[in-house]
Design goal:
single chain; alpha/beta; 6-stranded mixed sheet; Enoyl-CoA_hydra_C; ClpP/crotonase-like_dom_sf; Enoyl-CoA_hydra/iso
Length: about 260
């Protein structure tokens, strides 16, 4: 069996590919576990400054959870088993992507249904092919989303717009995904990975510490009051005060030259 996750690193950017194209890159337990392992690997690699996450094949980013597999967990009849094997695993994956200290850009190359849409909600940035299609179809299975979709989508789209998508379960095009803040932009299909790499390059030219601090402040602050969020923002700045990158950034501004950050 081919590896369900492919990882390639080039010019400081990790390309992670969900690699089950015959199953529309459905998120089985093995794929989720290997995705988490890939994130562990690139987090500890100082040479990796950003990650792009996409799907193998021409049809799907990910059609969602592997229904055949998780239905076996449900069939056992014990809620604790299904929650342990399925829900906690998926929620841990989306939480890891959301809190990852290096920017993660989703390159949505086709269907992003269910868990594939929840990955899109969790990552920091997302670019969609003009062939992409999104959906929150869990309601059709007699269940709510379980990988964070009931929480993140309302924060992105607003309560009423999110509830319409969650309760109707109908597919929606990339134009609507962009309108509600689920994705950043739409590009022609054959330009998708190039556009994702270009966006990653515009981020990785900056200080890694500043990028990580910005991601942390935004991610944590969304779930706090403004006063608590401002404290997180202050903490992230304070951590950078003794750093070489902040000194270099300030010196470059004063000298009217491009900053030279380590690894950039």
């Amino acid at each position: 069996m081919p590896d369900p996750i492919l990882l390639a690193i080039h010019d400081g950017i990790a390309l992670i590919t969900l690699n089950r194209p015959a199953q529309l890159n459905a998120l089985n337990y093995q794929l989720i576990d290997q995705l988490m392992a890939a994130l562990d690997r690139i987090e500890g690699d100082a040479g990796v400054r950003a990650a792009i996450l996409t799907g193998a094949g021409e049809r799907a980013f990910s059609a969602g959870a592997d229904i055949k597999e998780f239905s076996e967990s449900v069939k056992q009849g014990a809620a604790a088993v299904a929650v342990r094997d399925f829900v906690r695993r998926g929620q841990a994956m989306t939480a890891r992507l959301e809190a990852f200290k290096k920017p993660v850009i989703a390159a949505i190359n086709g269907l992003a249904f269910g868990g594939g849409c929840e990955i899109t909600e969790a990552v920091h940035l997302a670019i969609a092919s003009d062939r992409a299609l999104f959906a929150k179809p869990e309601i059709k299975l007699g269940m709510p989303p379980t990988f964070g979709g009931t929480q993140r989508l309302p924060r992105l789209a607003g309560r009423k717009r999110a509830l319409e998508l969650l309760l109707a379960g109908d597919p929606f095009p990339p134009e609507h995904a962009r309108e509600i803040g689920l994705i950043n932009r739409i590009v022609p299909h054959d330009q998708l990975l190039a556009a994702a790499r270009e966006l990653a390059g515009r981020i990785t030219r900056h200080s890694p510490g500043a990028v990580a601090g910005t991601i942390t402040a935004v991610t944590r602050g969304l779930n706090m009051s403004i006063a608590e969020g401002l404290l997180v923002e202050s903490e992230q700045f304070a951590a950078l005060v003794p750093s070489r990158d902040l000194a270099e950034g300030l010196a470059a501004w004063k000298e009217r030259r491009p900053a030279k950050y380590a690894g950039a």
